[in-house]
């Protein structure tokens, strides 16, 4: 797949930055999300000087860091003059403590889950998917992100460490609030595996022998450096299990009732040949 042929591609960044413009995605309505307003990425602290210089041409008003405090201390965001920068972890336990998306972080979340699934399944993989999907519920960081989007606090960037899990789920939710269908949102989510193909391949190739002997380790590697499609799909199945419809979910979680969704879409959608925002 040629990433530079995608409408969401942003030139000037290495693929591992996982930086994308949510704009350019065309909804089933035929309308397109406006470009140049909402970006997602890995942690900007890992950008090189040329990439940081390009980032500052975006005219950003707001950056939301979805990482834990520990992650942010290890690789601080660069100071971006004139930009409001905020950190709110995109995964927290029931006590409000930050959780990173490492295997150890998920184990901590297993012990103190923020959301208890009403029909929890027994397998380890299914339990991990349930924990992963819990970040879509009662999430103050996502609520803050949607609140900023509702009032047009753009251009904005949201990111986590590698731009794949906390960032990937948030991006799926934004696209679906704009009318994107769930399968297409998951397709966008798994593009991380293309952006991060070199890191993922290096990890798998470096441990191919043991991963052949213990196939489940390949799943761990995929989770560590990329994303797993079934995890993205599980987010939506859990939403439907709890709320029935996406519309009910957006109303309850983000205060976006039918009128709110209509206003949200009016703000960010345009005909594909419509004006480009300044």
TrEMBL record:
EC number: 3.1.3.48
Family note: Belongs to the protein-tyrosine phosphatase family.
PROSITE patterns linked: TYR_PHOSPHATASE_1
GO molecular function (one): protein tyrosine phosphatase activity
Keyword entries, A-Z: Hydrolase
SUPFAM superfamilies, alphabetized: (Phosphotyrosine protein) phosphatases II
Species of the source: Olsenella absiana
Record bears the keyword Transmembrane: no
UniProt xrefs under InterPro entries: Prot-tyrosine_phosphatase-like, Tyr/Ser_Pase_IphP-type, Tyr_Pase_AS
Name this polypeptide is given: Tyrosine-protein phosphatase
Uppermost EC category: hydrolase
Keyword Hydrolase in annotation: yes
């Amino acid at each position: 797949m040629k990433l530079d042929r995608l409408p969401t591609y942003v030139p000037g960044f290495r693929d591992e930055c996982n930086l994308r413009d949510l704009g350019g995605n065309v909804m089933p309505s035929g309308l397109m999300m406006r470009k140049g307003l909402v970006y997602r990425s890995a942690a900007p602290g890992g950008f090189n000087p040329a990439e940081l210089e390009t980032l500052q041409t975006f005219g950003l008003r707001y950056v939301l860091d979805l990482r834990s405090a520990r992650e942010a201390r290890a690789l601080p965001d660069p100071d971006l003059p004139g930009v409001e920068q905020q950190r709110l972890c995109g995964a927290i336990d029931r006590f409000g403590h930050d959780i990173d998306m490492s295997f150890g972080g998920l184990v901590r979340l297993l012990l103190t889950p923020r959301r208890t699934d009403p029909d929890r399944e027994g397998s380890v993989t299914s339990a991990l998917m349930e924990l992963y999907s819990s970040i879509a519920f009662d999430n103050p960081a996502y609520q803050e992100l949607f609140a900023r989007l509702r009032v047009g606090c753009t251009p904005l960037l949201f990111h986590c460490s590698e731009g794949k899990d906390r960032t990937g789920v948030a991006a799926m939710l934004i696209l679906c609030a704009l009318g994107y269908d769930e399968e297409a949102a998951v397709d966008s989510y798994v593009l991380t595996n293309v952006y991060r193909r070199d890191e993922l391949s290096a990890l798998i190739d470096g441990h191919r022998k043991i991963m052949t002997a213990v196939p489940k380790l390949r799943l761990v590697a995929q989770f560590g450096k990329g994303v797993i499609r079934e995890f993205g799909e599980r987010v939506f199945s859990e939403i439907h299990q709890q709320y029935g419809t996406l519309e009910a979910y957006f109303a309850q979680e983000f205060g976006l009732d039918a009128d709110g969704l209509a206003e949200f879409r009016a703000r960010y959608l345009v005909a594909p040949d419509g004006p480009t925002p300044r």
